[in-house]
Design brief:
Shape: elongated
Distance between the termini: 34 Å
Largest sheet: none
Order of helices and strands: HHHHH
Strand content: under 5%
Number of domains: 1
CATH architecture: Up-down Bundle
């Protein structure tokens, strides 16, 4: 059966791929803006749904409180980096430096989540919850992608 962790890992792979593409995009092609927008939508939809359907239940358990807070703080850091990139010139050298920092933060967050947070939350959630949360996450994630794409 598909669990919340399977659903999250799928989005994590998309995020990793978009980060790689973003760093390889040349400024003169106009692809930086397109890829950044794709990445922004992916990160925002994923974070909103993940916070609702993984972090929120884990926050209710003492063992999950600190890891959830840490993960939420990293989501905020990613949001700030995206905002900085969106407001910067796509041709400037500082843009690429900020894109590299965004990629580093995203990769760090995903690795930490997959190697630490999933294990802690796996001890808190039952197998039934993991399966139910996957369906709720998937539905909300798709809804959020549509909402964010329409903006």
């Amino acid at each position: 059966m598909r669990t919340i962790y399977d659903a999250l890992r799928e989005s994590h792979e998309i995020q990793r791929s978009l980060c790689r593409r973003l760093l390889l995009a040349k400024p003169e092609t106009g692809k930086r803006e397109i890829i950044l927008n794709e990445l922004h939508i992916e990160l925002a939809a994923h974070a909103a749904s993940e916070e609702r359907f993984l972090y929120a239940p884990i926050l209710m358990d003492d063992m999950g409180l600190d890891p959830s807070r840490h993960a939420l703080a990293e989501h905020h850091e990613i949001d700030e980096c995206i905002e900085e990139l969106t407001n910067a010139s796509y041709e400037g050298g500082s843009w690429l430096a900020t894109a590299k920092e965004l990629s580093r933060i995203v990769r760090h967050h995903l690795k930490e989540e997959e190697t630490k947070f999933f294990q802690i939350s796996g001890k808190i959630l039952t197998d039934v919850q993991k399966t139910k949360l996957a369906g709720r996450y998937d539905k909300d994630y798709q809804r959020m992608k549509k909402v964010l794409s329409a903006k």
